[in-house]
């Protein structure tokens, strides 16, 4: 089996796994599996030489197309994780304000009008 075919096979597995939406509790396992596949692919890429036989061209072209789709999907996942983190931070801050309502500056007794 050529290195280009092996790269294509790993990239297809990565694509299949990245396209799946994980259940909310399985996100960590999903990310760990993606990291494992990325490391496998990185090892295969590091063993490939600069020149590629002509027969491996279609394999590499297909792997590049799948890589573009995987990259887009991983960016979507990253933005969803960032949104979840921001939502959690906001929820935590709201909880703190509710528990300790006297820590924030009070609006009571503030003068709105100005001196003449």
UniProtKB/TrEMBL annotation:
It comes from the Bacteria. Pfam families: FliT. It is found in: Cytoplasm, Cytosol. Residues 92-116 are annotated as: Disordered. Keywords: Bacterial flagellum biogenesis, Chaperone, Cytoplasm. The keyword Cytoplasm applies. May act as an export chaperone for the filament capping protein FliD. Belongs to the bacillales FliT family. This is Flagellar protein FliT.
